Amino acid sequence: MAAHIVIDKVSKVFDGDGRRMVALQDITLEIPRGQFVCLLGPSGCGKSTLLNAVAGFAPPTSGTVVADGVPVTGPGPERGMVFQEYALFPWMTVEQNVGFGLEIKGMARAQIAARVAELLKLLSLEDFAKRYPKDLSGGMRQRVAIARVLALDSPILLMDEPFGALDALTRRNLQDELLRLWAELKKTVIFVTHSIEEAIYLADRIVVMTYRPGTIKRDMLVELPRLRDPAAPEFNALKRELGLMVMEEQQRHHDAEIKAAAVD
Ligand SMILES: Nc1ncnc2c1ncn2[C@@H]1O[C@H](COP(=O)(O)OP(=O)(O)OP(=O)(O)O)[C@@H](O)[C@H]1O
């Protein structure tokens, strides 16, 4: 069966201030339907750039992305995106935020109401339907952002550090919730994180990226049974292995910054 997402020789070059920066170089990845993939690497290694290329927000300089059998030329309904910053409309209530995409699609009012109610229940948001985003905690806002994306029923979920701004407890809570939804709804997920523990906790597959140019340093399957125990020896062994890889890239980032500062 064809892969659900095919990233073929994707490169991205940014030109600015007379400097040419290769953010991604020849990234090739085939992601089967239903797989939970984490893109892992230190800041600046191109994780968001790659995710944005799959989302269709910023086309690659060269290479192609095919998602759900369709070449990506822009954002599309088969790919839903959740950002780190809760991209909610502050003037809309929770239920209006969740229903917004359905309204745009032209769904009938009664149908929207039913679907929104179902989603609020799925994410334990029923009691918050009439609240505004400003009156919610960070974790609750991110639940709303997830419900809003699920409303569109995209088979592909793209998540850019969605839990990065949350405290540890809320974060674990939402990770568990996401795993539950993923298992239930059978989405294909690409999840960007720089947290090694988060990647091991969530992913079927971890793709470690190098710092400038962004390439694939390691592509590994995580075969530990879920729910995973971060205190288990196998979890920690993997954490050490990945930690060394990420640290090498962090060091390259640091060295590059020192070099750039010396040139300026
Ligand atoms: N629009 C842009 N113009 C110029 N350079 C950019 C642009 N967007 C990203 N970059 C650069 O491309 C590189 C990769 O950035 P990207 O945001 O994809 O990394 P990342 O791994 O997601 O990092 P972070 O975790 O900090 O978001 C960085 O060096 C960044 O400065």
From TrEMBL:
The keyword Transport applies. PROSITE patterns: ABC_TRANSPORTER_1, ABC_TRANSPORTER_2. It holds the Pfam family ABC_tran. Coiled coil: none annotated. Residues 5-236 form the ABC transporter domain. Signal peptide: none annotated. GO terms for molecular function: ATP binding. Gene3D superfamilies: P-loop containing nucleotide triphosphate hydrolases. SUPFAM superfamilies: P-loop containing nucleoside triphosphate hydrolases (SSF52540). Keywords: ATP-binding, Cell membrane, Membrane, Nucleotide-binding, Transport. Belongs to the ABC transporter superfamily. This is ABC transporter ATP-binding protein. It comes from Telluria antibiotica.
